[in-house]
Amino acid sequence: MAAFDKSDNLATSGTAHDDQVKPVIAVLGAGKIGEALMSGLLHGGHTADELLFTERHPERSAELTDAYGIRSVEIEEAAERADVLVVAVKPQDIEPLLEKLRPLMTPGKLVVTLCAGLSTTLFENRLGDVPVVRVMPNTPMVVGEAMSAISAGAYATPDHMATVEKMLSCVGQVVELPESQLNAVTALSGSGPAYFFYLVEAMIDAGILLGLPRAIAEKLIIQSAVGSAKMLSDSDTHPVILREAVTSPAGTTINAIRELEKHGVRAALLAAIEAARDRAVELGKAHE
Ligand SMILES: NC(=O)C1=CN([C@@H]2O[C@H](COP(=O)(O)OP(=O)(O)OC[C@H]3O[C@@H](n4cnc5c(N)ncnc54)[C@H](O)[C@@H]3O)[C@@H](O)[C@H]2O)C=CC1
Ligand SMILES: O=C(O)[C@@H]1CCC=N1
């Protein structure tokens, strides 16, 4: 996963950005989202010695330690040293991890799960009456632009929620929602970056179809995506109004919109996001 410039990360390692004592955070499972979180936290002011990770593949551990200066540890050390244990393994890999974690849980630990579809109840059932906060982030956390939704488990207090909110605010925006909405969030913003990348990929292909060099097509589309995203985030103007401003009477854009409608792109998006939500539900049911 492309992240912040890695030498930049190393440069910040071990350097305190502010005087506040931060919790020690251990990421359990340092794959794509685990790396994105660690990279984002380093850039958000955490230091490498406030972070730990566990990873089952030694070569992956070495790669991350080289890149970020963060130590890879066994789960026993992670559970002992960290205040916050962030679970970032695939939902399919959750059971063996929780089995290992259960005897290591001591009072004062906070469990944060990033796993799609898995309920806080699952964690409480496997680990005991521990505070659990369920989070659905997304990969733009590597550039400090994540959208994360957080929900409290039965034993998570407002202080726990504040800790998690503070941690995630370093890497983007955070909203608190009822857990009943987290599978929808997963389908919308958790997977959302993939939909935008897919769209960009398809639009670049269209440039190739029209005979533009690939590098030029990429530049045109990526900058158009960046500019459009900035317009959406910088103003309160509804996307419909922004689109109408581009769509001139008897102009070019309306011809394109007619084709999008004809090919059912809006309906396809509704169905796609509903299917993603259904898969999140299914992932959760596998562990009931
Ligand atoms: N990739 C994404 O955009 C997002 C992923 N998520 C969630 O984050 C979780 C991780 O997803 P990815 O990072 O994409 O998967 P990934 O497969 O890239 O990373 C998972 C990592 O966990 C490691 N692992 C598995 N079991 C382990 C264990 N017992 N001990 C130590 N390490 C272990 C694997 O070796 C792997 O490196 C999933 O539950 C997913 O639903 C949530 C939001 C966005
Ligand atoms: O595709 C997945 O299952 C994960 C969850 C949200 C984004 N990626």
UniProtKB/TrEMBL annotation:
Pathway(s) this gene product operates in, as recorded in its UniProt entry: Amino-acid biosynthesis; L-proline biosynthesis; L-proline from L-glutamate 5-semialdehyde: step 1/1
Domain Pyrroline-5-carboxylate reductase dimerisation: start-end pairs: 179-283
EC number: 1.5.1.2
Biological process according to GO: L-proline biosynthetic process
Compartment list: Cytoplasm
Domain Pyrroline-5-carboxylate reductase catalytic N-terminal: 25-116
Function: Catalyzes the reduction of 1-pyrroline-5-carboxylate (PCA) to L-proline.
Protein name: Pyrroline-5-carboxylate reductase
Species this chain originates from: Haloechinothrix halophila YIM 93223
Lineage start: Bacteria, Bacillati, Actinomycetota, Actinomycetes, Pseudonocardiales
Gene, per the UniProt record: proC
